[in-house]
Specification:
The protein is of the alpha+beta class. It has 3 domains: 72 residues, no CATH class; 129 residues, Jelly Rolls (Sandwich); 71 residues, Phage tail protein beta-alpha-beta fold (3-Layer(bab) Sandwich), CATH 3.55.50.30. It has 8 helices and 18 strands. Strands 1, 2, 3, 4, 5, 6, 7, 8, 9, 10, 11, 12 and 13 form a 13-stranded mixed β-sheet that branches. Strands 15-18-17 form a 3-stranded mixed β-sheet, covered by helices on one side. Strands 14-16 form a two-stranded antiparallel sheet. Helix 4 crosses helix 5. About 13% of the residues have low confidence.
Length: 318
């Protein structure tokens, strides 16, 4: 029975192995040329997907402008799809399966051509990847990648936060527990912790996948995974943490001091009830006393130290 491709999106075509083979002039089993003549819409989607497949190939490192134009069409398609009934997305399913298989392979002894970088509280680390892309790894984070076949599979696994500057080439993927980030040559920040998943684009263009939803980010855009599992896009964001500045907008003090603990390698104990208070502001990690002042003064809080522990309390009323 002939498969029906009429409901395929651009992403579905671009994720289909047989379509990829056809796009690259390799052996394939489906008569894709016959599919293209079924309708103008089908032909347009297949043409866009073919461009995307070829642009992501390692032999086309200089096709970034063409790829960006294709992504513009995908973004428009995403906005249209949100207004319609939910349809299947093989791209997401294949991505999830690929991530699971990748995690399994990386756990096997024969695949131990791995590189793992870990940082402790109060520590940052810069590393260079096999293609001269770089990653600045923030406190309490883990970055892993396989050196084998790196040129064909530029994939890293991240737990924590890192800022990437990616060389042009084939697709570069960052896999986290909460979502996936795909780019070409660009610079961006990814944070994936127990209670947070955030991506910020500094240059180039970034595609973010999480919970069967996808968002495309341009320079200055950011996206955050909300408590309900949806992605919320923001504009005019900046990657401040690489300059040792940590900004917050309507974030609980509990979250703020968790970041504080990571940056200064200390323990913070909050007086009961303070953790749920909301905070907007920032601190820098070059001076612990000044950072405490920046957080506590706007909230009328006081603090004192007991060894490596900082006790934070509400200032007594006069």
């Amino acid at each position: 029975m002939m498969q029906d491709f009429t409901q395929y999106t651009v992403e579905d075509f671009a994720a289909n192995d047989d379509f990829i083979a056809w796009s690259r002039g390799e052996s394939h089993s489906v008569a894709w040329s016959d599919q293209a003549v079924k309708s103008e819409e089908m032909a347009n989607k297949m043409a866009a997907a073919k461009k995307l497949v070829l642009a992501f190939g390692p032999e086309n490192e200089d096709s970034e402008q063409e790829t960006m134009e294709v992504w513009d069409r995908i973004e428009a398609s995403i906005q249209t799809t949100k207004k319609e009934a939910k349809t299947r997305s093989l791209w997401r399913r294949i991505g999830a399966v690929a991530a699971a298989i990748g995690l399994l392979l990386l756990s096997l002894p024969f695949f131990n051509q791995n590189e793992t970088f870990r940082t402790a509280a109060g520590e940052e680390l810069s590393c260079t990847l096999p293609d001269r892309s770089t990653a600045l790894i923030d406190d309490e984070s883990v970055l892993k990648f396989g050196k084998k076949d790196w040129a064909q599979n530029r994939t890293v696994q991240l737990s924590g936060r890192a800022f990437f500057e990616v060389q042009k080439g084939s697709r570069f993927d960052v896999i986290t527990d909460q979502g996936k980030v795909s780019v070409l040559g660009t610079s961006f920040s990814v944070e994936s912790r127990d209670d947070a998943f955030r991506v910020q684009c500094k240059t180039g263009r970034v595609m973010v996948f999480a919970n069967e939803e996808e968002v495309i980010l341009d320079p200055g855009d950011g996206v955050e995974l909300l408590a309900d599992g949806s992605l919320q896009k923001e504009d005019q964001v900046s990657v401040d943490w690489i300059s040792n500045t940590y900004r917050f907008s309507e974030v609980t003090l509990q979250r703020v001091f968790e970041e504080f603990e990571r940056q200064f390698a200390v323990e913070v104990r909050l007086e009961s009830g303070l953790g749920d208070q909301l905070f907007s502001g920032f601190f820098t990690d070059d001076d612990i006393d000044k950072a405490l002042q920046d957080i506590c003064w706007p909230k009328n809080l006081v603090w004192h130290r007991e060894g490596n522990t900082i006790i934070v309390e509400q200032e007594a009323s006069l």
